[in-house]
Amino acid sequence: MLFSSIPFLYYFLPCVILVYFAVPKCLKNSVLLLFSLFFYGWGEPRYLIFMLASITQGYVFGVLVERYRDRKWSRAFLAASVLFSLLLLGYCKYADFFISNFNAVTGLSLPLLKIALPIGISFYTFQILSYVVDVYRKEVPAQKNFINLGAYIAMFPQLIAGPIVRYADIAGQLESRTHSVADAAYGIRRFLLGLSKKILLANTLGELVSIFKASQEPSVLFAWMYAIAYVLQVYFDFSGYSDMAIGLGRIFGFRFMENFNYPYISASITEFWRRWHISLGTWFRDYLYIPLGGSRVSRPRWLLNLFIVWMATGLWHGAAWNFVLWGLLFAVLLMIEKLWLLSGLQKVKGLGHLYVLFFVVVSFVIFDGPSLGEAGNHLAAMFGGLKLPAVTTETLYYLGSYGVIILLAVVGATPLPARLFRMAEKKKGGGLLLSAAEPLVLLGLLILCTAFLIDGSFNPFLYFRF
Known about the structure:
With 466 residues, the protein is mainly α. The chain has 2 domains: 6-177, no CATH class; 183-267 and 350-454, no CATH class. Helices cover 73% and strands 0% of the residues. Helix 3 packs across helix 6 and helix 10 (220-251) packs across helix 15 (351-368). It is globular and about 65 Å long.
């Protein structure tokens, strides 16, 4: 079940809200857990086995790690939990990738397992890992209530598309949280804005991406249109889902961390990764980069740490070499910045922004490629390497058809709309006018999104690869 679907919007969500607020406080986490399991099992009930097994091992090993904290068994229980999580993730997500590469190297023909990837397994695996590690580090107490821990791991707002919520951030909220009309109103507003970003912007841009890939008349301009459209699609899809998750969490009394902060206005790749998928970046920093030694080691070891972290980041996104290359590209760029480029970028105004946008576009073309070869062809098309015409009649047609939505998306990816909204609020009578207009605007967006969904328009789910 997807947030951007009629069953979720008009059946599942109203039911869970009605039941959640009808039951007493002591049953609210139970309601969240049961509805979350139903939500996850809607498409593939068999994958509930993996999730329940992961929750159970996280619960058991978390308790054991705490009970034997001052003995050698504590580290053994931590290792067992980490190994279970990584083996399950590796089996579901990477087994066929390793088998196919092993066959390519050895010339053998071992059969592929052809395992369908359980949706969201990368997200909830990382949450379980962080929980058990934090218990081992004595940063949080082990959760003794299985339902509370299950609600944290399986909570449907952030289950399939993040953000990656750390147990430490919501441990207190699992035990006791408040609900208010103001929080519910904020949550609804945030959810509807995220839904609109996903359906009205990301999906429309995704149509142009698909059109380019199926085109029989590619051109250099069309290749750049595709690349820009995809970069914007990824942003509005990911940030839209994060907005929906944060909004839903607020309705149920949870405060999730922000996951995106206008990454495309960054003046360096370092800044970009402080603004893009913040929960993932902080997870790798705290649970891989710093334990490896971070930057407080010799320069060769530091460079090795960077490559390990960014190879892992690439592989987290998908079991394919284009994801590995995507991650390693950022490793190289960050290494160059930290060694000498960053100070130079700060001296020339505007240069850093152009540099970031260029490499982000190139990197996401690699990211989008179903293979390295196809990604290479798309990059070659952008830079005239395939002897394509600069422009064709088809290109001009689609530029006219999608030019406005691309322009709107470019503006929407900056803080400008939020600044204009704040300026309007400060004007005399502006706040009152905007408060009166907001419900009508949000209702209009909901109706428009519903119309798009009923029409059966393009509605991809990018997280199938994660």
